[in-house]
Structure formats: structure tokens, C-alpha cells
Amino acid sequence: MDILTSLMDGFAVALTPTNIALAIFGCFVGTLIGALPGLGPVNGVAILIPVAFAMKLEPGSALIMLSCIYYGCMYGGRISSIMLNIPGDEPAIMTTLDGYPMAKKGKAAQALGISAMASFVGATVATIGLTFFAPLLAKAAIYFGPADYFALYVMAFATIGGVAGVNPIKTLIAAMIGLMLASVGLDPATGTARFTFGSYHLYDGFDPIVSIVGLFAISEVIMYFEREANGGADQAVPLNKGLPKIREMFAGFSASLRGSFIGFICGVLPGAGASLGAFVSYSVEKQVSDQDGTFGTGDPRGIAAPEAGNNAASGGALIPMLTLGVPGSGTTAVMLALLISLNIQPGPLLFERQPEIVWGLIASLYLANVVLLVMNVPMVGLFTRLLSLPQWLLMPVVIMVSFIGIYSISHSPFDLLVMIGFGVLGYVLRKLDISLVPVVLGLLLGADMENNLRRALSISGGDFAILFQSWIALVIYAFTALMLALTLAMARRRPKRETI
Amino acid sequence: MTDRIVGLLILAISITVLVVARGYEVGFGDPLGPAVFPQMVAVLAAILSLGMIFRPDPDPDWYRGTVRSKQLATLAVLIGYVVLLEPLGFSLSTTIATALLAVLFGAEIRKSIVAGVCVGGCLYLIFDSVLGLPLPLAPAFMG
């Protein structure tokens, strides 16, 4: 029952007038960013983190606003999938399969209504799961020693690309690139300047936020011209008049429930995340209910299942991120960057030391779900109109906001140049089908991974055997091996697609 | 081919890391020191880079012509913006950069100038007045 008490305390934090206002603002801005074609949740949250700093919010409030932006982006992403057939991010790909055909049939409003409902169901199931499972995992994680944490990081890197990556070797290389970049700067333990090549600017290393905005947003801008040359954007399907009826929105309700549970489990698994959640939910739903071959032609259940799965998985992915400090996907990696930049160290101790932040966050996610559902159904017309915003206006504004945001953190033009550099790096990696998420993870987790390794070895006096002496570490390594085997099996079966 | 070149580059970087890290000293009570972890990563990266060198994927489509020039021009505008941000002041540099980017993204000249002025002005107002971020307002030579 103390979970419910904590949750009530959390609602007390989330339901202050300021925080409610921030939550509504976050949901609105998030949906807006999610709806804009080409800008996924990763970009949205990354660009707005510096803006949240600029507003000088308390850590708790900043966290609430940015998680609402995150959830809002997930909601908004379905709008461009359904209306334009352009998924905002990888998990949204599955929504285009039935969403776009349904919109083409003149049922765009219904498709958007169904997906809003399914997103709500998925996200709510995941938030309930988060409420009950996260504290349990946090309790278990208290027993983790440095060697166990090291094992955990090894697992994070070995499995992350796994399901998302096309070529497993390239995914692992991406992780190594991230870890190498993470070691640039002053070594905290000895004060040695590592790989700084004598430049004082590099003593602090690479700021994760600067790198993330560069890797994702700037590379997206460079990529844009190629996509334009490849035929450019499709015309948006016109939105039919009138709100969808309540009954219509419940079409495929059972499909969203099934999708939610599958998605949630996928989200909790390390390295799987929302893409897998949406993918598996859609495939399972197709197996279960596609008797007359209507899937792919605008079946409501084909919209509901992946949308619920996608949202449930992104909620589930918060569990390993909050309790262990190990994110499983691109968006949770950005959330981790956000926590770190707010000086909040995720991990089991977070639940003991700063319960108001964790529970405030969880309560605000419940709030965000409701706000998003209420906001999305009547206002969907406004959001769809944004799709016709010209790219020549949108892209420069996005670039300028990210530049000012980064500049406002440090007032250093050098950071902006670093960001452009990361943009070029991100572009080259994407061209080579090397996923960017492991690079970000490496950058974020590198320092902790090294610290835990060094701590473990200073306990053992330099004997590497300590890494394999605790049963927790051994279980993690065994699980890692299992996931790697699964990954290799999946990599053979799944078709090649664009890396994000 | 591209895979091979990048693989070789990663291999070269890994070897550089291994060599450079040898100079880092071990501290007291810290048997590993600052060198070992980067070296472990470098060794793994080197091994993995062999995978890219010997089993490369097919080449990606590199664009030439207009697309390539637009990409390079965008980068040039961004770098120019950063260099000129403090000397020219925020509003002026943002106005110029936004207008140039708008042209690159396919706007007519007149529209892009209007967009530049609006974006430069609005962002300055939002960030400086509403959010209270001190941004360099005037060009440096004007004091």
C-alpha cells in the first residue's frame, strides 16, 4: 500500500497550479513538435531541454514539463503518420500501415480518433505498470555492487542495437564511438586531461545535450535535402469534417489492450524499446484478428494495436531508465540526458533520496495522458493544419531555436561548433546505416561505466576476477548472451530499413 | 568502399587512443588508472572495425550536384552564423542566417527576407525578454 501513498504524494507534487500549467503547455508543444514531419520525439525533447533551463524551473517542474513534451511528441507523431504517410520516428512506421489507407478512404478523423484512444490506453497501461514495477526493481537494485553495474552497462551496449540495428557489428561500433567520445576531458579521479589535444575547451568533455542536438537535429537538416531530391513530401490527406463519434473511437479497443500489454513487456526489456513494441503488437494483432485480409487497407485494429504498443513500450522503457539508470531506447536516452543535466542521478537510490521527483514524474504522466486525450480529439484540426507549414520556414526556425538553446547553456560559440561537428558525424553515420542511439548511450553512460569498473577493481586490488564473482553479474551476463542470440536470429528475419 | 574507409579510420583512431593513453599515470588506490578503460574500448573498436573493413555493406547513395551543394552551403551558413554571432549581435546574425537558410530550403528571396526579420526579432524577444536570457544585442563594433 505504500506505493499508493507515494503515488498520492506524487499527485500532490504534480497538481500544483504551476505544474499543471507546465504539463498542459508541455503536452501542447509536444504534440505540435510530434506532428511536424521529420522531427521526432528525440529531436523535440533534445531541442527543448536548453529552453527549459532558460525558464529557470525547479528540477521537478522541468522534468514534468519535458516528460509531457515527450509523451506529447509520441501522440503527435501519429498525426503525420496517418495524414502524410511520413512516420515522425521509427516506432510510428507501423501506424502508417493501416492509418494512411484509412485516411485516404476519407476517414482521417476516425483514424486519428482511434489512434488517440489507443495511445491513451497504451500509455495508461504502461504508467500503471511503471507505478507498480519500478519500486520493486529499485528495491532489488539496491544490492547491486560496482561489478554488477559494470555488467549492467555491458548488457545495455550489447543489447541496445540488437533489435533496432541492421548490422550488429555497426551497432557495436556505434557504442564504441560513443564510449570513446565519453572519455574525452579531465579524468575525475586523477585529473589527467584525456584526448583533449591541449584544448581547454575540451576539458569538460562533450556535453551530452550539445551532442544529441547535433547528432539528431543537425544531421536531420543535412539529410533533408536528400529526401527532398527523392521526391519530397506527399500531399496531406484532407481531414474530413466533424469530430469522430465516441463509439467509433472505441473501435479496436480490445486490440489496443492486447497491444498495450505486449508493448509494455517489450519496453521493459533492455534494448528493445518502442519500435519493437509497435512491431510485435501489430504482427500479433494481425495473427489474432486478420481473418478477412483487411489489415493494411485501413483496419481500425491495425491502427489501434501498434499505436497502443508503441506508447506502452515507451512508458515501459522508463522503468529500466529510472531504476537502473540504463535507458533502452533513443528517447529514454534523451530523458536520461535530461535527468543528468538537471543533476538528478537515476538509479535505485533515486527512489529513496528524491521520492518527490520520481513520484511527481509518475503522477504527471497520468496527468499528461488525460490532458493529451482531451486536447487531441477536439484540437486535431489545428495540429493537422500545421502539416502544411512550408519547410522553408520550419527548418530555419528549428535550427535557430536549437542554436540559441545550446548557446544559452554555456554562452560559448565553441559548443555550437561542436554541435555542428556532431551533426556532420551523425549524417555520415546515418548514411552508413550506423544507428545513432548507441553513440548517445555511450556518451551518457561512459563515465559511469568506467567509474564502476575502477571502483570494482580497487576493491579487488586489480584482480579482474571480481567482475564475475557476484551472482547478480553472472545472471546479467547470461541474460546478455541470451539477448544477443535472439538479436542475431531476429536480424536475419527482418527486412532492412532506414536507421534513425 | 565507404565502409572500408570508415573502418580504416576507426582502426586508426583506436590505435591512436592506445598509444596516447599509454602516457596517462596511475593514481594511488586506483589500480586501473585513467588509461585502461579507454584502451579496452579502443581494442574492441579496433576488432570491430576489421568487420567493417573485411565485410563491408554496399555503398550508400552519395548525392552530387545541387543536393551536395545545398548541404555544403547549409553547413557554411551554420558555421558562419556561429562565427558572426557575437561580433554581429544576435538579432542581425539570426536575421541573416534565417534568410539564407530559407533560400536554401526553397523560399523566394522576398519571403525569406521577411522570414529572417520576423524570426530574428521574435526569437530575440522570446529569449531575451520573456525567458530572460542575456543575448548579445548590438554588433560589437557599435559598443
TrEMBL record, chain A:
The keyword Transmembrane applies. Residues 21-441 form the DUF112 domain. Keywords: Membrane, Transmembrane, Transmembrane helix. It comes from Antarcticimicrobium sediminis. This is Tripartite tricarboxylate transporter permease. InterPro entries: DUF112_TM (IPR002823). The chain crosses the membrane at residues 12-35, 47-73, 111-134, 140-164, 171-189, 209-225, 261-282, 324-345, 357-377, 389-409, 416-444, 464-491.
TrEMBL record, chain B:
The keyword GTP-binding does not apply. Residues 5-136 form the DUF1468 domain. Coiled coil: none annotated. The chain crosses the membrane at residues 5-24, 36-54, 75-107, 113-137. Keywords: Membrane, Transmembrane, Transmembrane helix. This is Tripartite tricarboxylate transporter TctB family protein.
